[in-house]
Write a structure and sequence with these properties.
elongated, 3 helices, mainly alpha
Length: 82
């Protein structure tokens, strides 16, 4: 579970696919019932951060699609992570 102890800043560098893969692994670990309560809380916290990251990635993709539809060209959309 060492990957779950990384900071949230490292999550910002994950691709959407890597974040969802890690999230799937966390769910599998939690469903196995083999984690201690403390490990489950850490996994849940990490999962919540990953979900937020994935939602932000999807929002950014949606914004790019809207810009593409309006301008007929794909333009990167900057997301404020505050």
């Amino acid at each position: 579970m060492s990957t779950q102890n990384t900071t949230s800043s490292s999550i910002e560098n994950l691709s959407f696919e890597a974040a969802t893969a890690e999230l799937e692994a966390i769910v599998a670990q939690m469903e196995s019932g083999e984690l201690t309560l403390e490990q489950s809380l850490q996994a849940y916290t990490r999962g919540a951060i990953l979900i937020k990251h994935c939602q932000q990635s999807l929002f950014a993709a949606e914004q790019q699609i809207q810009i593409l539809n309006n301008n007929q060209t794909l333009t990167p959309f900057e997301v404020d992570n505050e």
